[in-house]
Specification:
The protein is of the alpha/beta class. About 30% of the residues lie in helices and about 25% in strands. The protein has a domain of about 160 residues: P-loop containing nucleotide triphosphate hydrolases (Rossmann fold). A 6-stranded mixed sheet has the order 7-8-9-4-10-11, sandwiched between helices. It has a 5-stranded mixed sheet with strand order 1-3-2-5-6, with helices on one face. Strand 8, helix 5 and strand 9 form a beta-alpha-beta unit. The chain is globular, with a radius of gyration of 19 Å. About 40% of the residues are buried.
Length: about 280
């Protein structure tokens, strides 16, 4: 069965023709195994998933269940053993310029300024004036215009992660893939970064696939939460469940609906309600 994430109002690009349209993504019967001395080790099996343009999807699961492996397939950083991944109807390529990736660690170059780190994300051949305008726009968007000349050692972890996000957006991606981008941050900074991601998505409504192990984060950010994991007796992970998240973003973190879904998702992850 193919699971389709609905497009939200924030997925409409309006009249700005300079932006890359948000693109559809399809995982079609994706399998991935890795060679070992004892033979192939299966990690993913029969993953079918469709993301509509402009949607935000959270990929939730326990550690080691294959979330990051699936994300890498979507970015073209790895290839399925069987199956395929399509972006806008055509197979994803290695280092696909339609996609951008953000990781848990900002991975900034320490000898470059914040501005220069963001500029690294610009497509090759971008005219200098156009690139400078694009970087200025992104620095304003993530609240770092006043820190453009600082180097990574001179800014906080949250600022570094904002720099990383701006760099990913610099190429105007149709698909943004985020691998636990806020996992290394303290709780308060993490909440602020979640709000920032929502602001960024409103301004640049790309298709987002977000890997997380945080149920609350998934419910706050996503239109739909995909639970990945292994069924009893199976070696490889697949889609265990898909949960639609009601209400427009930003959502009330104290909502009764979100509390109910939190319990549902924790149960899917094997956490009894009284442990929540």
């Amino acid at each position: 069965m193919t699971l389709t994430v609905p497009t939200t109002p924030s997925g409409t690009l309006g009249g700005d023709a300079s932006r890359t349209p948000a693109l559809a993504v399809r995982f079609e019967s994706v399998h991935r195994s890795f060679p070992t001395a004892d033979g192939p080790r299966p990690v993913l099996a029969s993953v079918d998933l469709a993301l509509a343009p402009g949607s935000v999807t959270a990929l939730l699961g326990t550690s080691g269940c294959g979330k990051s492996t699936l994300l890498r397939q979507g970015a073209g950083l790895d290839r399925p053993t069987r199956g395929r991944v399509l972006v806008d109807g055509t197979p994803v390529r290695a280092h696909d310029d339609r996609c951008a990736v953000g990781f848990q660690e900002p991975r900034l170059l320490p000898w470059r300024t914040v501005r220069d780190n963001v500029a690294l994300g610009l497509p090759r051949g971008t005219p200098r004036a156009e690139g400078r305008r694009r970087v200025d726009e992104l620095l304003d968007l993530v609240g770092l215009a006043a820190h453009a000349g600082h180097r990574p050692r001179e800014i906080s972890g949250g600022m570094a992660q904002r720099t990383s996000l701006a760099r990913a957006l610099a190429r105007r991606p149709g698909v943004l893939l985020l691998d636990e981008p806020f996992g290394a941050l303290d709780a308060l900074t993490r909440l602020r970064m979640q709000d920032l991601l929502l602001d960024v998505h409103r301004a640049h409504p790309t298709t987002v696939l977000l890997v997380t192990h945080d149920v609350e984060e998934a419910l706050q950010l996503a239109d739909r939460v995909v639970v990945l994991g292994r069924r009893p007796g199976e070696e490889a992970a697949g889609v265990l469940d898909v949960v639609d998240v009601p209400g427009e973003r930003p959502r009330d973190r104290e909502s009764a609906d979100l509390a109910r879904l939190r319990t549902v998702l924790l149960e899917r992850l094997g956490v009894a309600p009284h442990h929540a």
